[in-house]
Known about the structure:
Strand content: 5-15%
Mean pLDDT: 93
Low-confidence stretches: none
Strand order of the largest sheet: 5-4-1-6-7-8
Amino acid sequence: MTAHIVWDWNGTLFDDIDISVAAASAACRTVGGGDITHEAYRRAFTRPVRSFYASLLERPFTDLQWKAIAECYHRTYRDLLDRARLREGVAEILDSLAGAGVTHSLLSMGEHDEVVALLEREGLLSRFLVAEGMTRQQRTESKQAVLARHLDAVRERHPDELSVDRVLLIGDTLDDNEAAVAVGASCVLLADGSYDPEKAAAVAVPVAASLSAAAELGLRAISARPGPG
């Protein structure tokens, strides 16, 4: 039975931390807040995203202000999108793993059409059995809920029977790990991800310095699991 990797997109395969911080700073300024640092962004990041902004601003805000925050963030992010790049060696890593029998899918909490357009632009879309972002109606869902649904979609296209204990999620936030744990999959986070390192250590989530190291670490853990029966 082959292993399957669910890749996160934003901050994982797609290195967009700089423009994400810039867009979040602009969003905070639009409701009277100040600029934020990369460290503050990483340590405060959480879902739902509204709670993230309440933490950054250190105060609650109205529904009207939340609408302004969301609109400003997405507008600024799109304006800066050309400044973001894939992490080094993404295509080569995916192809090498596929050559070893590992299958891939992609699950992003970003807007579906934008994610697919970027995958097509980078020539990556065909490497994934399933590639999904969120519709605007789904953006308020937890990653746990969308991961469970995503794995159902993967099973429909997977060449072999896929058991969740053969699934590895590679991401950059603690909610990636929470989602994986909830469905029974493994998870490895990137060391430069958007999370508080102390919180990651407290839940003993594996961390790796690069995409290839994350895949190696996670697949090694999967292979060490006892087989059925």
